[in-house]
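Appendix B. Raw example, untouched.
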Amino acid sequence: MAQEIVEAPLAGKILQVHVKVGDRVNEGDTLCTLEALKMENAIVSPVSGTVKEIRVVPGQAVKTSDVLAVLEY
């Protein structure tokens, strides 16, 4: 199976994680919510697949290109 790495598009803070390891997601499903520049940004799945790893927790600060999740498809 192939893997898709989901990275932070902006530096900010994780407000909420909407999925857990093992969850099946569809392309466009929200994986987590990132607060950046005083705006909430939904980080969505670029592919349909299974959540293999979640590398962030609510309240965690992230930098641009930090890995948020790994999906398997």
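End of appendix B.
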